[in-house]
Amino acid sequence: PADEEHWKTDYNKLAALVSGKGCSQLAGGTTNPCLKATHVCNLSKKCVRLRTDYASICTRGAGSEDICDRRKCHRGLRNFFEKVPEDFTKRILFCPCQDELCGERRRKTIVPNCSFQYNTKPNCLWLLDSCLEDHICKSRLADFQQNCQPADTSPDGCSQHSRAACLQAYMGMIGTPMTPNYISNSSVEVSLWCTCESSGNQKEKCDQILGMFESNKCL
């Protein structure tokens, strides 16, 4: 019972926010979907605690590789996306934006200065090697490749005919060495933080890795 109380969600407030009746409480009445998603998360003690946990770890020294503990940051992100129900995590990560203010909030959801970016972009083949050496990342990459394989003939662009499964697999990649993210505040395009320059005779393989995230019709 104590645990149930600890993780209790205020469902009356949640229902009001989800239906839009609670929008007047947000940002002076404006409807920023990402801000609204955060307020919905705040009504779940589990969601807000795990979100606060990773944000605290990832912002500590963010922007400086010497101080930012990327490994702990990634672990905190995995905890959040694994343990918090999809209803909350999908709202936060995939909130639909009409302006750059909302888009910036969406892009910064995973604290990219620590979890996503390096001072310089590494080669994508190096990212792949790092992933294959990590059993969690290796397994999740296989899941992502299976569920996010594009298909021109499919109505939703997915060979498995399930965009929901692809989005779930995408969330599974966050907190791994191959963490993806939005590339700007004004776009829904996502990518890895890497480059295929100086790939030599492995340029084609490198482009394929990047192409799994960039311009993927299924994703």
Automatic annotation (TrEMBL):
Pfam families reported in the protein's UniProt record: GDNF (PF02351)
A GO CC term assigned to this protein in UniProt: receptor complex
Main localization, broad class: membrane
InterPro entries: GDNF/GAS1 (IPR016017), GDNF_alpha (IPR037193), GDNF_rcpt (IPR003438)
Topology in the lipid bilayer: Lipid-anchor; GPI-anchor
Stretches assigned to the GDNF/GAS1 domain: 34-114, 124-218
Localization terms from the record: Cell membrane
GO molecular function list: signaling receptor activity
GO biological process terms held by the UniProt record: cell surface receptor protein tyrosine kinase signaling pathway; nervous system development
Keyword Signal in record: yes
Keywords, sorted A to Z: Cell membrane, Glycoprotein, GPI-anchor, Lipoprotein, Membrane, Receptor, Signal
Keyword Oxidoreductase on entry: no
Family classification: Belongs to the GDNFR family.
PANTHER family in UniProt: GDNF FAMILY RECEPTOR ALPHA-3, GDNF RECEPTOR ALPHA
Protein's recorded name: GDNF family receptor alpha-4
